[in-house]
Amino acid sequence: MFGIGLPELIIIMIIALIVIGPSKLPDLARALGKGMAEFRKATQEIKESLDVDEDIQEIKRDLVDSVSGLDSQPDLDDVKAEGDNKPKYENYDDAIEDYEKSKSGDTLAEEIKEDTVTQETKKDGE
């Protein structure tokens, strides 16, 4: 356990029996056992929580990859060097928001309307 062998454990038990007394020793052992059980339960819950957080982060990365079509994060230095070529979405939430807008059809109708106005303006200018 902590490098304590059987002889050391027997000596510790004898000293505890003398100091605490035979009447309170079982109560102390019960309380110590309950405390250890609660500690183990709490550490197990923390481990499970961390595992769930890691799983959620992995799923989120997979979704971003599938939405953007990339297997890894783009190199941001290359993007800055090229100038106008900026990523369309900064994070996963922006991509989902744009997707929700496109599902509603409002964005598509607005884009078509803007394209039509732009084309008419070009024709008028010629």
Name a few traits of the molecule.
single chain; 126 residues; mainly alpha
Low-confidence stretches: none
Mean pLDDT: 76
Helix content: over 70%
- Secondary structure: number of strands: 0
- Helices, by number, come to 5
| Rg on CA atoms, Å | 33 Å
* SSE arrangement, N to C: HHHHH
Shape: rod-shaped
Tell me about the biggest sheet?
Answer: none
The oligomeric status of these chains comes to single chain
Strand content: under 5%
How far apart, in Å, are the first and last alpha carbons? 89 Å
* Sheet/helix structural class: mainly alpha
Structure report:
The chain is mainly α. Helices cover 79% and strands 0% of the residues. It contains 5 helices and no strands. The chain has helices spanning 6-20, 25-68, 76-82, 92-104, 106-125. The longest helix has 44 residues, at 25-68. The mean pLDDT is 76.
Task: Put the structure in a nutshell.
With 126 residues, the protein is an all-alpha fold. It is built from 5 helices and no strands.
Secondary structure elements and pairings:
Elements: H1 6-20, H2 25-68, H3 76-82, H4 92-104, H5 106-125
